[in-house]
Amino acid sequence: MKVLSRTRRFPPLNALRAFEAAARHLNFRLAADELGVTQGAVAQQVRHLEDVVEVQLFRRLPRGLALTREGLEYFSSVQRALQIIADATDALGQRPTVLAVSTTPSFASKWLIPRLSDFGRLHPDIEVRVIADERLASFRADGVDIAIRLSKPPFPAGLVAELLFPLDIFAVASPKLLDSDSPIRTPADLAKHVLLHDAHDLWPEFIGKLGGKGRADPTKGPRFSQSLLAIDAAVAGQGIALTSEPLVERDIAEGRLRRVFDFSFPMSLGFYVVFPQANAHSEALDAMRRWLFAQYRNA
Questions:
Q1: What pLDDT, on a 0 to 100 scale, did the predictor assign at position 4?
Q2: CB 206 within 8 Å of CB 200
């Protein structure tokens, strides 16, 4: 077989397809029926390919075709190459849909991520990208499809906002701390312990609503930029944190935290599912939205 120059190494794709079909059927007419062209077109493409490679690929017989030795070798390689191209093309259409979800680090870590494998099981064709940031994301600039945010109405025009769940705030602490030599039975006992603050700074309101004598100073105690950090400090026995059910439900269920009092108070804020009105018809977004509400109902 003659060696092709570098500029002639890749023959026309249509000619290769005609050759591969004719080689499988050993018949120009059957190859033409498969490709949806005329028998003459297949024969012309094969002759053109033979001119390009400067090798006879078929022997033309009265009742069909026979591959030459070179044609048989070439057919094996061309068939593999066309299959690789076909598989790669099919794979393009099978790439998962990417859905970008924006939420806070605390909500992502404590509520969303522990459940996310269930969404993957139900929707293997959707690839979820979680963007955990305290900063409010811009749907267009940051490429965000749907957000879960602690907020309250009104919301900007053009956004759909649905309340995922309201928030009741209560105090939590490590069982070790609650079972220590300084138990917490009354509001006055808070003064003997460290109050852990997050960016929401809810202790003044909480103590005011809790009432009682000998109140703790609601301004004292270490401050954390995220609720997640205050919760982790409480788990470590470093003090008492204020939080809500979605953020500590697993810690309470697994015994890392306990509620300090039966008392809680409702916030005007809640976790909302927010997305642009223009994206309302996205199947992937709707799947995530429906899954989020199902998770809350089943919690």
A1: 45
A2: no
- For the chain, domains (ranges, CATH) are 6-93 (1.10.10.10), 97-166+269-298 (3.40.190.10), 167-267 (3.40.190.10)
pLDDT for 188 = 87
Q: What is the pTM of this model?
A: 0.63
Per-residue pLDDT tens for 222-243? 999 889 999 999 999 999 999 9
Return mean pLDDT, the chain: 88
Per-residue pLDDT for 8 more than 60? Answer: no
Name every residue whose Cβ is closer than 8 Å to that of residue 107 and which is 6 or more positions away in sequence. Answer: 148, 150, 246, 247, 271
| Predicted pLDDT at 214 | 61
> Does residue 9 register a pLDDT over 70?
no
Q: What is the DSSP string of the chain?
A: -PPPPGGGSS--HHHHHHHHHHHHHT-HHHHHHHHTS-HHHHHHHHHHHHHHHTS--EEEETTEEEE-HHHHHHHHHHHHHHHHHHHHHHHHHTPPEEEEEEE-HHHIIIIIHHHHHHHHHH-TTEEEEEEE-SSPPPTTTTT-SEEEEEE-S---TTEEEEEEEEEEEEEEE-HHHHTSSS---SGGGGGGSPEEB-TT--HHHHHHHH--SS---TT-S-B-SSHHHHHHHHHTTS-EEEE-HHHHHHHHHTTS-EES-S--EEEEEEEEEEEEGGGTT-HHHHHHHHHHHHHHHH-
